[in-house]
Amino acid sequence: MTGHIQGSAAGGVAASAAVEISDLSKVFNHGKPNEVHALDGIGLSIETGSFVSLIGPSGCGKSTLLRLIGALTAPTDGTVLVNGKSADQARLDRDYGMAFQTSGLFGWRTVTQNIELPLQLMGWNKLDRKNRAAEMLELIKLPEFGDHYPHELSGGMQQRVAIGRALSFQPSLLLMDEPFGALDEMTREHMQTEVLDIWKKTGKTVVFVTHSIPEAVFLSNRVIVMSPRPGRIAADIEIDLGARTFDTRESQRFFELITQVREVLRFDEDSR
Amino acid sequence: MPTREETTRAVALLERKAATKRGTRRFVVFIVFLAVLALAYTGYKAFGEAVDDAQTEWAVVGRILPRTDDLTMPPIVDIITEFGEPPQRNSGKPLVAFIAEASLFTLREAALGFFLGMLLGLGFAIVMLRSRWLERGISPYLVASQTVPLVAIAPIIVIWGSKSMGWLPFDWQPWMSVSIIATYLTFFPIAMNGIKGFQSADPASMELMRSYAAGRRQTLIKLQFPAALPYLFTAFKLAATVSIVGAIVGEISGGVRGGLGRLILDYASRYTTGPSRLYASVIGAAVLGIIAVGLVTIVEYLVVSRRQQGRTVS
Ligand SMILES: Nc1ncnc2c1ncn2[C@@H]1O[C@H](COP(=O)(O)OP(=O)(O)OP(=O)(O)O)[C@@H](O)[C@H]1O
Ligand SMILES: [Mg+2]
Asked: Reading across the β-sheet that carries A85-86, which strands appear in turn?
């Protein structure tokens, strides 16, 4: 078992965008007194194979944007294209793997059974499921915990299982909404390294929502900073840190980029 | 260093020991409770008899309180010994044998009623799950169905059952009509708890299923049904008791012989010649109810095993 998983690159179009968003708006409770303009005129193109983080103050529409990409909610206006298809078609084609703040593991299923859930739904046979689950356990570094139930694992381990489950059927796009939000700082940094490792091995496109500036900078090729009411893109920052090593977190460039993101967030705060 | 397997085995052993201990404690509590009940009964009876006989102002109390004489409240010893006596002079078997036979007959009716009620109840729950609109449309009628007095429907169902139903692949027996009466009571808690249980599935998990492009049926089987199990077993226990009640009432109002209902009716009509007999048969009915719930609990233990008790989706 090499634990190596082939990335399924999307489409045949050269330098194709995994996600193409144009003029996207989302209004909740339209026409009612509690109307909320969660997103307004968002335009964004996410390159295949990139790691993009969405960051911004609470309520600025990060989750909403992620849910629109994942076809969990419908746009009020504008379009979302995923691998050249509508988001809903991409959902039906099982292009998405999702992981959220709560691991959402099924407590009545063992770790292996949880990882096998999407495969089972997709009609894989038993042997293939077993092999893939073993591969995934290897990837998330929990090879001995296949027969455990979720409540027997720590929060970080549960989150890794959720990521394994999201990747088990090799979706081309991984959507994560504060997956490490409930973890302590130590576990969090460890998980970040793990996720980068998995990302490098699998070549997925990752859209990652976070509250933490260092986390966004450390993980991403690109950090999208959002501003609230209505949710807009305030800045789009390239992260040129190169290969992440143990020293990356202490490098000069790392701090510069963190400052750059922080400044956008603060300027945004001051200007309203 | 113990291997993983050894650890697992040790944990299993500990769990089993703990379960046995829990079982023992529960049994002791049950016995103590019975004893307290018997003591209260006897104590009240003694008190009532004392004030009845009293020539003082306490006699007033005796007139207000319900009767406590041997005809109304036979002594516990009498009730217990009654189980061993033949209920009629010329019947060879002791009363307990009659009660056991009748209980089995009633249990069969109740069991069939329970299973039909389970199918019907789950069916209603699954239909109501389709849309809020269907749920709002259907559930008031389900509630209304339970306010119709059983004694009114029971004879109707029994009369329906007495018509020849040649289209059935088997002969329709009168006891099956009683099962239908029990079904009428059992489907309700299962339908109501079923829909609530299905809806209790974590919304995030529902979205997860959606992201896998899982169909309605897959979502029901893989997520909503397992999530509903605690609700369903609560409903099954309720249904088990009402299935017994339904069968007994069904027998009585439908005039079906062979079961506990008929026995109770018989002994009630000849109460004055043997009050203990009626008490004994009522105790039999209670025991039958306990057995029915016990059976469901055993199934629950097997289905929702200890290890899955931390089953909250986190
Ligand atoms: N289902 C909904 N119904 C009504 N309003 C909603 C709904 N979901 C989100 N909103 C509103 O849309 C806005 C953006 O919410 P969203 O959850 O996307 O923010 P967020 O950036 O993810 O915040 P956080 O960092 O706190 O998770 C908020 O004002 C929120 O109240
Ligand atoms: Mg959010």
From this structure: A36-47, A17-28, A77-82, A85-86
